[in-house]
């Protein structure tokens, strides 16, 4: 499955199949969250959260791809990611784009 962030694929014609998305709400366990809180005192990267968001993006992307495959898509164009805090210590990540079939 090709994932493209631009709206068109140079040299390719395609039929639009529709919007596809994948989403996940994820949190870290209390031990890692406590350690992350301590890290905010001294500053710097909070690796456990960086890893959590990277994992969440991967899962959301796989779910988006699965939805596109169920439509018979060859690619997803206009791929975007968004994240937001849905509650303390939990974040939602969504991957979305337009599923297309090559002509």
The general outline is elongated
The mean pLDDT is: 87
- Give the N-terminus to C-terminus distance in angstroms: 15 Å
Runs in which pLDDT lies below 50 for 5 or more consecutive residues are none
Compute the gyration radius: what is it? 17 Å
User: How many structural domains in the coordinates?
Assistant: 1
Structural class: alpha+beta
Quickly give the CATH architecture.
Answer: 2-Layer Sandwich
Number of strands: 4
User: Going across the major beta sheet, what is the strand order?
Assistant: 1-3-4-2
Largest sheet: 4 strands, mixed
CATH superfamily: Hypothetical protein apc22750. Chain B
SSE run = EEHHEE
Percent helix, as a range, is: 25-40%
Beta-strand percentage range:
35-45%
List the helices and strands and how they pair.
Layout (H helix, E strand, L loop, with lengths): L1 E2 L10 E14 L2 H13 L4 H24 L4 E13 L2 E13 L1
Explain the overall architecture.
- With 103 residues, the chain is an alpha+beta fold.
- It has a single domain, classed as Translation Initiation Factor IF3 (2-Layer Sandwich).
- Helices cover 36% and strands 41% of the residues.
- The protein contains two helices and four strands, in the order E-E-H-H-E-E.
- A four-stranded mixed sheet has the order 1-3-4-2.
- The longest helix is centred in the middle third of the chain and has 24 residues.
- The two termini are 15 Å apart.
- The model has no long low-confidence stretch (mean pLDDT 87).
